[in-house]
Amino acid sequence: MAFISRGFRGKRRDAASSSRVPPGQHVVGDFPVLSAGPTPRPDLAKWSFTINGEVDAPKTWSWDELRKLPAEDITVDIHCVTKWSKLDTSWKGVSIDTLMEGVDTAAEYVVAFSDGGYTTNMPLDEITGHKAWVAYEYDAQPLHPEHGGPARLLVPHLYLWKSAKWVRGITLKNEDEPGFWESNGYNNHGDPWREERYWGD
Amino acid sequence: MGRLTVTRLTWQIGEVTDIVQETPKVATLTIEVPAWSGHLAGQHVDVRLTTDDGYQTQRSYSIASPPEEARLALTVERLEDGEVSPYLVGELRPKDSLELRGPIGGFFVWRAGDPRPLLLIAGGSGIVPLMAMIRHRAAVEDHTPVRLLYSSRAFEDVIYREELERLAAADRTLTVAQTLTRSQPAGWTGYARRLDRAMMDEVAWPAQEGPQVFICGPTSFVEAAAGLLVDHGYDPRWIKTERFGATGG
Q1: CB-based contact (8 Å) between A18 and chain B?
Q2: CATH number attached to the domain at B118-244
Q3: What ipTM is given for this predicted complex?
Q4: Are B180 and B204 in contact (CB under 8 A)?
Q5: Does the domain at residues B12-104 carry the CATH identifier 3.10.450.50?
Q6: Measured between CA atoms, how close is B29 to chain A, in angstroms?
Q7: Which of B5, B104, B240 to mutate to test the interface with A (most CBs of A within 10 A)?
Q8: How far is CA B136 from the centre of its chain?
């Protein structure tokens, strides 16, 4: 017989939002902050976004150059491994497809890297095909440093630790290489709908 | 000594053996988990609650007990509009069963034997994972110098107050500095304001000591503390943070 928590009644969700909330998650109204260390203080004059690694010629954009690329408005649900989900968040940023235009690579994996030393790994085909962006606005405002500003990766179909805050680039890799949380007990893939939270999930 | 596990973290049923009210809103649950694999100081567990018609919800809670204790202790703050914490602090009774899995998190952990001096900074119930570190250090009689800066709203909100007093009195290498931000009892000799630069300069190790720092509390508190330490000359890589918002539930 399945376990029942004696005396627990729970707060019920309406069916509409339930269908959008992955298992084990609950919807929040605010925007919690999670990060493993101090919030970096980058100088935008020296900021750049780089695609390097298994590529003939690395590509780099300055802050001003990135801001001049075609940008998209993105409205998505986001899911944090710490159990909260936030629905209909609105962002503005540049699609990874736009950044990858003209990049010739046989790499199948990427490691995103950030100010402060944070890294996270993903298969390349999970951030291309209109699935990921470099986002620099949230709710029509410059992205707040606590939430990853000046720019963060936005990969909404995976748990939010994959959406690297303070992102500075992606390294294309032939082999999959676990990033920061992926080396510290968290799942290598991180699909919230399959509840891939931790190692072995 | 706990260790990280590469195998799947399976859900386990523990039995609540004891509940101690630490403050008006905070209680410590002691749980017997028959197949507990051990943990490191600073790790957390996921708790899953299930209703009789199958609805489930999960939250994460820091482990308060040191690796050396057989039973798991979770210290939980009751959030009035939360879904899980009012059940854990209010409904749950000794002999009840609780479903959990863990330990989780391999970064915000401290192991005795690390030679760097420790600076622990806690806001409110952010003391919980730091207390696991303090208890771990005491249990193995490690004498790494530790300074704890602990901010609470009022005297009655201070979690583990007597135990911290007792440990600090018995150990010259453990220094506890406290601040009460909202109200202070008569004769209070600690700080009586929000964390600020002057307080941090008095409590923090000089940067030359190359300390290791763990900060846990609400986001605004963690941001302020980490920012002050970077200004103080600390390398950001020395500083590990853990946060909770108003959504712990």
Answers
A1: no
A2: 3.40.50.80
A3: 0.91
A4: no
A5: no
A6: 15
A7: B104
A8: 12
